[in-house]
Automatic annotation (TrEMBL):
Pfam families: ABC_tran (PF00005)
Source superkingdom: Bacteria
UniProt key word Signal: no
Keywords noted in UniProt: ATP-binding, Nucleotide-binding, Transport
Signal sequence, start to end: none
GO MF term set: ATP binding
Source species: Aeromicrobium alkaliterrae
Keyword hit for ATP-binding: yes
Name assigned to this protein: ABC transporter ATP-binding protein
Domain ABC transporter: 6-237
Gene3D superfamilies attached to this UniProt entry: P-loop containing nucleotide triphosphate hydrolases (3.40.50.300)
Amino acid sequence: MSAPVVHFAGVTHDYVTPGGVTRALDGVELRIESGERVALLGPSGCGKSTLLGIAEGLIAPTAGGAYLDDVKICKPHSDAGVVFQKDLLLNWKTVLDNVLLPVRLRKERVADYRERALALLKDVGLADFADSRPTELSGGMRQRVAFCRALVRDPDVLLLDEPFGALDALTREQINTDLSSMMDTTQATAVLVTHSIEEAAFFADRIVVMSPRPGRIAEEIVVDVPRPRPAWPTVDHRFDEVLDRARRAITSRKAAA
Ligand SMILES: Nc1ncnc2c1ncn2[C@@H]1O[C@H](COP(=O)(O)OP(=O)(O)OP(=O)(O)O)[C@@H](O)[C@H]1O
């Protein structure tokens, strides 16, 4: 079965607090095709995480709806692989058990996934750490484990919310390259929220630039660089035009805000 289309249809979201109402998203219309990778780029507070929360079923939009194929997302669904800025690993479990956690949560046979879990850890250079505890790992290593966990059940939707946000620049570059080769093993429809133009270009088939709050779709940029993409975008001139366009899109929205 192919990965689902993720469709945000006229999504508006208001946060209601004692201090008043904040409109975070305003009529977002975005269709992400089966197996497509989209990066959401936009100024802080423009509603990127809110949009991802709606795709996860954790946030119910005030108006409009999000759909997986034609099925409206009405409640949290555990089929998506998710990675957040904070890795959320369980420090009292081994690295391997952390990777296998989604399997256990769904009460599936752990033995069926053990080899895939070990292979994913090997792909990201952590084969020797399967029996370690997350506390023994660096931030970058922990985030690699979080990616293995998100991919272990080969989900058909991947939602990545600033997964590299807490890492230093060098580690980010390396982990982006690792993620890129891990992504070669999945056909999932994927959404990456990021503040980094380079990360967006490296990851995505299409960059979606959002306006300042309330978030709307401001511009879409197709990243017409074939995969595999072995080099980091700033050292690969095939990305120059995409990086330029994305930079201009962000700067002009800031100026207009
Ligand atoms: N639980 C909440 N209650 C009230 N307002 C909220 C809540 N969560 C987010 N907001 C507001 O909604 C807007 C969008 O927030 P969101 O976190 O989706 O933006 P973002 O683009 O992901 O931001 P950043 O890039 O800084 O992570 C912001 O103005 C934020 O203050």
